[in-house]
Model the fold of this input.
Amino acid sequence: MEKTLVLLPSRRACFFFEEAIKDQLTEISWLPQILSVEDFVERLTNFRNLPTPELILETYPFYREVFGSESETFRDYLNWITILLADFNEVDAYKIEIKKLFEYLRDERALKSWNIDGSEMTDFQKRYLDFWEHLEPLYKKLTTHFEKHKMGYQGFIYRKAAEHV
Done:
């Protein structure tokens, strides 16, 4: 058993599996190595999965750098960043081609904001489109930083694992 690795979907499953094995043992024995998929991928890549509060703090300076004078206060940033990070997480977990995705999103948003009557775009519409223009540079800055410091969110770490297997 000491040369066996059991890979389970969550840390909770690992705990219950280990307890179930202990309950079945009648003599002293080695347990197999039991890891969650998340721990296995972290070990495989040597990247650290950041908890959400740390991730939010880590990303804010890059948001300010990319958006410059148009950036919001940290308080306003808190209102939407977890949603954006969850989206980035999904993009990376499914290994979606980044350049094409952001081009598509930018173009799709531009079409939605287009005034068919030919009238000038409102300031809100301009800011909205500008936000979508900044997403790819923000994503690239974040992932470059994560790569350099061997950390990130789960999807990013999964992408790294898939690239290096």
Remarks:
- The chain has eight helices and four strands.
